[in-house]
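pinned: reference chain
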Amino acid sequence: QLQLVESGGGLVQPGGSLRLSCAASGNTLDYYAIGWFRQAPGKEREGVACISSSGTTTNYADSVKGRFTISRDIAKKIVYLQMNSLKLEDAAVYYCAAYRGVPVLWDVPYEYWGQGTQVTVSS
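pinned: its structure tokens
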């Protein structure tokens, strides 16, 4: 059973940076595509970034392209989301998720989910 735990959220001013981590336990991440999703109050969950099991393929939502970077450390079983130039509208609970397949920004295929980490962007 794969378990995911997010960390790294917090309060940041607009224009600031945060790095989120998604750590796996209970199983290896080797064969899983990983996606980062977010959900703000009153809004639907949206895909932010995703990465293939090998780390060679990534995809980003248009709203974060050029600002966010997803990467993975296969040996450490951790996937990162580096978030730069944060905007007020980036505030949300961020979740990582995993499934065995190609990386997509659609949440339905993802089988395993973390508990989420809060990102607050405020001046």
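why pinned: The chain has a mean pLDDT of 95. The longest strand covers residues 18-25.
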